[in-house]
Sequence to fold (592 residues):
Amino acid sequence: MDTSSSDDVIRWFEEAAKSAGKVQMQTLKMILEMNHEAEYLQKWLKDIDVHNMNAEQLQSLFASKVPLASHADLEPYIQRIADGETSPLLTKQPITTLSLSSGTTEGRQKYVPFTSHSSKTTLQIFKLAAAYRSRVYPTSEGGKILEFIYGNKPLKTKGGLSAGTATTHYFASQEFKLKQQQTKSFTCSPQEVIFSGDYKQSTYCHFLLGLFYAPQVEFITSTFVYCIVQALTLFQDCWKDLCNDLFNGTLSPSITIPCIRISVLDLIKPNKCLATWVSSQCEELKESNWYGLIPKLWPNAKYVYSIMTGSMQPYVEKLRHYTGDRLPLVCAEYGSTESWIGLNMDPCSSPENVRFTVVPTFSYFEFIPLHLIMYHKDVVVNGGGDDDYLEGDPVPLSKVKMGQQYEIVLTTFTGLYRYRLGDVVEVTGFYKGTPKLNFLYRRKLILTLNIDKNTEKDLQLAVHKGSQPLIKSRAELVDFTSHAKTTNQPGHYVVYWEIKGEVKDHVLAQCCKEIDAAFVDYGYVVSRKNNSIGPLELCIVERGTFKKIMEHFIDNGATMSQFKTPRCITDKALLKILNLGAIKRFRTADYM
Ligand code: AMP
Fold:
């Protein structure tokens, strides 16, 4: 895609969307022609002349010859790459960089190949999304963006390859700088702040510079909305220091990393008037529990832009509180470390209603239809997958049907072939020839003891229902996770909650009962009735426990930018953090 203006980039996308089926076939042909010699593809497509086949033939041949794969199937190849093997294993060109997924789905970070194509598509989707946003919310040229973004120091693998999170690679890439130039909006913070490696020091400086440039800030953003909510919590503890620094043009001694100090002090100057104004706004905001903080301090900000769907949904209400329901919340795009997938073409849609339009040039997409299993009386049927679905045969993008749920399968330019991403989406419509998706949940089962099967979404819904009594107590659920405990028989679910505010024990006991009753999965309901699963336990942890969980991930190589609170915990170190933080435990005595 070679486009300069917003109109060009939209025109390019519209053309691609119009003939999405064809574009997909060509995309697959390009990937296969490029990487046909790679060892993995040779295993399946040996003796096949991909160059002399037409795109349509190639599409059906590919599906018949190359099997669906999980990360575990590709891991031996990725490991050899990480160990320094340079022969063509997954791609013809050697892979020199690896990405680390956030590791919050399956409890461990996974290596995924990263190439210049990954950065290019990131730039493309950002430019495209910015073009659609600017139609509705035009921003001033040369304006600033307050971005809560964090890169970490890439590790070196045994073979000497650089391995960091996809966001880290992107923030360090030429494409990131290009995005700022081409979208004509610049992040407030210099690279030193983004890459400090200490999220607290970075966040402090993001705020300091964000306030220093406050009148020019056009919008506020982060990759996942969790980061904005987390940052605003930190702000409540450090706003006085920030005002002091703004007043004097200094930098708090809590910022100790020399390169950050130099780069920030180089930018800020004393601004007594601004500091006094910020301070008086904060005094007022404190009285209203920081309601409307964002528009108050950044009066020219037009919107907040971030991923707010899927596992980020529980933070949306908190963000609404900080925007005082006055600023539009614009949902950011749908993608993964493996590939970008879909674009939010309608920046006005709320986080609850956002749809992602598949960009057919990014990867070759297939869709595994998922059919809900119907249970009959007390017979529990076991499905084809991990959860309550029977799987159909994967279909190409041109064959998806409206209203149908699918798991996404990716074939990427970076060497993943028919790779099951594990995300479940629903096709809700089409834009020209390309589907619009509603992100539903990550398929990986999280809570299961025997025949019970609960996904992240099931837990999210149960916690949402169970937390309603907190509203009356004017308390707030800060974060939550769960664990399927089997040390005593029968096993049972433990739900961990961190709460802000005072809540009476009888109210928490009621919450516990309601969460237990809110799991509607048939296997769970039956098992609870016959007591093969014990009563649910609600464990209240002290304030700051979930921050410790996040810090544990960051200490182990994750970045704040891609962090998602794991919704089910099996890792011993994490369980220890939770159990050390436990202050109260409730158990539903009897099944209702
Ligand atoms: P990671 O590769 O670890 O950064 O995580 C990627 C995963 O985050 C995807 O597979 C999705 O499950 C989730 N994700 C990414 N973008 C979105 C989005 N816009 N809405 C909901 N979930 C998303």
Notes: The pocket of adenosine monophosphate is lined by residues 101-102, 307, 309-310, 334-337, 421, 423, 439, 442, 562 (CB under 6 Å). Residues 376-385 have pLDDT under 50 and may be disordered. The chain has three domains: 6-113+340-442, 138-151+171-327, 456-587.
